[in-house]
Design goal:
Distance between the termini: 41 Å
Mean pLDDT: 91
Number of strands: 0
Strand content: under 5%
Structural class: mainly alpha
Order of helices and strands: HHHHHHHHHHH
Largest sheet: none
Radius of gyration: 23 Å
Length: 236
């Protein structure tokens, strides 16, 4: 394969004991991207030019703020807002149209929509994350040890279950595709049911009839179900 493969991080993540290894891959990339953005790189002109143009999504602004580098964020937003003001000064909104003509603010609406959907950190993550998913398909076809590791995983969250099936249809064919889809479907459903049983018991434990019964594997059932359904990262 001509494009870069990421076999080591993919293999390492599937060695983890987690409810969705694909979520863990994404979180590792995200944390690395946050650290990169708030590290010395923000002083580099080429990086600052990209952050000035792309900006950041709400989610990653909040996560950067929690990281604590207030000066770094302030410097990035100083030049980002300078660029933003410069662009918006060029686009004067229309307040009224002519005869039988509505005011046309499509250029302003398009710019704001583009900016609102843009994020330097999302872009940095997604460029590599897609290669991770493609690497999973590559390893499935070419590495029997990985295939066995995949089959022993605890399944995936709903979002990444759908993503794996989507990419499998592009990257696999024939028996490889057929087996991958069936294994992935079984992993998802069997493990969703497993966590659902733990969640049921967690709820039952609040009934006085079961107060003296053991918790079994239910104490962290809620955060594990939140990961399965929403891909959330909540630790007990």
């Amino acid at each position: 394969m001509a494009e870069k493969l990421y076999t080591i991080p993919v293999n390492d993540t599937f060695d983890m004991d987690c409810e969705c290894p694909v979520c863990e891959m994404y979180r590792k990339l995200e944390n690395d991207a946050l650290d990169f953005t708030l590290g010395p790189s923000y002083m580099e002109e080429d990086i600052r030019a990209m952050t000035d143009k792309a900006g950041f999504c709400k989610d990653h602004v909040a996560k950067m703020y929690v990281k604590g580098n207030r000066l770094g964020m302030a410097l990035m937003y100083q030049t980002h807002t300078y660029e933003l003001i410069k662009q918006l000064e060029k686009i004067k909104p229309e307040s009224k149209g002519g005869f039988l003509k509505k005011a046309d603010n499509s250029k302003l609406e398009s710019y704001i929509k583009e900016l609102s959907g843009s994020c330097f950190i999302c872009n940095r993550i997604n460029d590599v994350f897609e290669r991770y998913i493609i690497t999973i398909m590559y390893l499935w076809k070419n590495d029997n040890d990985f295939k066995e590791k995949y089959k022993k995983s605890k399944g995936f969250c709903i979002e990444h279950y759908g993503m794996l099936i989507e990419y499998a249809s592009k990257e696999l064919s024939g028996k490889n595709l057929e087996e991958f889809v069936e294994v992935t479907r079984s992993l998802f459903l069997d493990n969703m049911k497993r966590v659902k049983e733990d969640l049921d018991w967690f709820i039952d434990k609040f009934d006085y009839r079961y107060k003296d019964e053991p918790w079994k594997n239910s104490k962290d059932a809620l955060p594990r179900m939140l990961q399965k359904v929403n891909g959330s990262d909540i630790k007990e």
